[in-house]
Amino acid sequence: MVNLLHLRTLMEVTRLGSFAAAAARLGYTASAVSQQMAALERDTGVELFHRSARSAVPTDAAQTMTRHASKVLTDVEALLAAASRNEDSGRQELRLGIFPSLATYVLPGILASPRWKKLGIDLRVHVAEPGQAIQGLRAGGELDVALVYQVGQSGLAWPHSLERQWIGDDDFRVVLPAGWGFREDADVAASHLSDMPWIVHHPGTADALVIERLFASCNLHPRVVAYSDDFHASLELAAAGLGAALVPELALRKRPPGVVVLDVPDIRLARNVFALLINEKRTPQVQLFTEMLGDAFGRTAGTASPGTRTVPEGARHKQRG
Known about the structure:
alpha/beta, Arc Repressor Mutant, subunit A, D-Maltodextrin-Binding Protein, domain 2, 3 domains, seven-stranded mixed beta sheet, two-stranded antiparallel sheet, 11 strands, 39% helix, 21% strand, globular
């Protein structure tokens, strides 16, 4: 299903003629806009832009879709207005499973927004890791929607009856102790970090294998000094000077003093964030809620580090929370 957030972004890119200009208008990063348009092209199966370094020229298909998008979004706003007028009689309970960093840094902003109050949703929140949330979606479970993350095509399994909607990608960054003397705009290759102390996730898991292969491919041979599956603990240990770590941007929303965040071109890692929905629970109100999540997530992405980057398929990683 086409994401309404992506249609809004399409209209701005078509009107302004570049991803960067649309990003500035909407409050995103250029990378987030590019990822949204790539997802829209995948969902629709058509090429929407002729891309160059400085512009994004809309195709005829993009122009046609933009005209239709304007009507669709007008209808959505009408639905919101109707929901606001009929708030008492049209309320819906939504039992939501959500992983910790999304619950910490994205959901509260949505709940505080005027638009949320118009939706008429009574939210019941379960903060849980993806595997646990998926269990809650199974027949007779306690959840209606699960917000989860995945790396590539492995690590998670869910019933085929569930519908998946992409929310965004949470890029990983290399975090170093400030005392090591690196600047955030430094040109650093992965090999420069070889033999340095590292804080990594626990061995023996699929995640560990992915990281080991990635590090080996870019000639990075870490000297492990700590194992941690908690990103906030990893950040604090890095700030204390113990070692380097890989941390997603959501967790970097609350970065402690004493760390330097680097964009290392050799290391391309991200976790795909998406919503799993039970089809019969997918009402217009729930659809609008997931669009709000994508919007809020897009505004959060890319704000925790000095650079932006596009994450290619096949080079992704996840860790808890």
